[in-house]
Amino acid sequence: MLKDVTFGSYYPARSFVHSMDPRFKILAVIAYIVFIFLAKTFYAFLPLLAFLAVAVAASRVPLKSVLRSIKGIIFLLVFMAVVHVFLGGNGDVVEISGVKLQFWIFSITYSGLIGALFLMCRLTMLVMGTCILTLTTAPMELTEGIERLLAPLKYVKFPVHELALIMSIALRFIPTLMEETDRIVNAQKSRGADFESGNLVKRVKAMVPVLIPLLVGAFRRAEELGDAMDSRCYSGAKGRTKYKKLRLTYRDAVGFIVISAVGAAVIVMYCMLPALL
Fold it and tell me: Where are the domains positioned within the chain?
């Protein structure tokens, strides 16, 4: 169900990761993403997996909540894996009982299978790492962190505060819209709607009664949010002060040491790529 998807939701808790500065967490996730794409072998995934395990343990977020974030990309994972299996390999063709798995321009090779598995692992780790950021950082803290990191752009008249607010609102409404979609789907099913049978065209047509009320509800929520901001005299970044000041603590120093060690390990393995192969 869509309500089980945790991306964009916040899990309140008192933990080491929750208490970190949001600016550092954002930079750490960016570094983590860079290290994921630097990894060229399964060996390079080991320090990243260790870092992910430590982050989940230190955040006190249930592992099942992190794993549920993968539900939203299962279709993408399967699609990319299938495409890579049939079109992404140039090595030896897989042979079963003397029959080669090859037809026309399509062939299943050992390199294609390994590449598909590698791609799925990379995308899964990417989603889980970014999910920890949203699960351990409140929307207001995330907005504040993004705004502080982009503060130098204010000198070129870039609307940093407005951009950070838009991103925060978008992340905040992801779980809300998913819950709304789930409620609409259940309401339509109770009225006899069928979303699971038929071909692809019929399933797309069946989703029309879901999309229309979902869009109407999204516009209504946006209007209510705008009215609430107007009633509180919100006027953008001009003249705004900060009630809570962001400060780096020893937790951020520990996190910097850990992410630096992970990055060093990945870079060493990247440089040793010919030897590992």
Answer: 2-161+244-276
